């Protein structure tokens, strides 16, 4: 693969790496506490399975991106990378979707289920979660563009006659 084709993917992978690491760090450091009726409760990412899933998937995506950045790019690996990029993109999307759903409940509650919103009591935690979701969305978008670019490159390699 020529240098002109490798530079955009390298830059997109650096963007994705930065966004996934940022999302992971912001989510892990998100915590706040509130006192309600003389009881103190603490909001942190470990209280929700979806937040744990979000952190794990972003950490896995960060590790995968680091490995891909430092491994040699060979034409024989392009199809494998294409499949792995698709898996990482889908995992990032699913983790963001799950965390957005719980964030929606945390922010607005659910009157039908009797769940009260918590963001009024722990705004610092909710702000950190929002920032982590934005960083995760940037990573997901970067991976989507990587995926489209990789599809284009693999398709061009398959259609070019030697």
UniProtKB/TrEMBL annotation:
It comes from the Eukaryota. Residues 9-141 form the Casparian strip membrane protein domain. Keywords: Cell membrane, Membrane, Transmembrane, Transmembrane helix. The keyword Membrane applies. Its main location: membrane. It is found in: Cell membrane. GO terms for cellular component: plasma membrane. Pfam families: CASP_dom (PF04535). The chain crosses the membrane at residues 12-31, 51-70, 82-102, 132-151. Coiled coil: none annotated. It is a multi-pass membrane protein. The keyword Membrane applies. Homodimer and heterodimers. PANTHER family: CASP-LIKE PROTEIN 1U1. Belongs to the Casparian strip membrane proteins (CASP) family. This is CASP-like protein.
């Amino acid at each position: 693969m020529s240098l002109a084709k490798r530079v955009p993917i390298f830059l997109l992978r650096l963007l994705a790496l930065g966004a996934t690491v940022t999302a992971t760090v912001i989510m892990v450091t998100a915590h706040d506490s509130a006192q309600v009726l003389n009881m103190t409760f603490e909001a942190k990412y470990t209280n929700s399975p979806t937040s744990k899933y979000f952190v794990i998937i972003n950490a896995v995506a960060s590790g995968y991106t680091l490995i891909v950045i430092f491994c040699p790019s060979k034409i024989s690996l392009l199809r494998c990378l294409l499949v792995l990029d698709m898996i990482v993109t889908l995992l990032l999307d699913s983790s963001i979707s799950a965390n957005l759903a719980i964030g929606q409940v945390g922010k607005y509650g659910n009157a039908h289920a009797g769940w009260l919103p918590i963001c009024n009591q722990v705004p610092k935690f909710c702000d950190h979660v929002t920032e982590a979701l934005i960083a995760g969305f940037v990573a997901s978008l970067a991976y989507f563009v990587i995926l489209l670019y990789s599809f284009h490159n693999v398709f061009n390699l398959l259609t070019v006659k030697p």
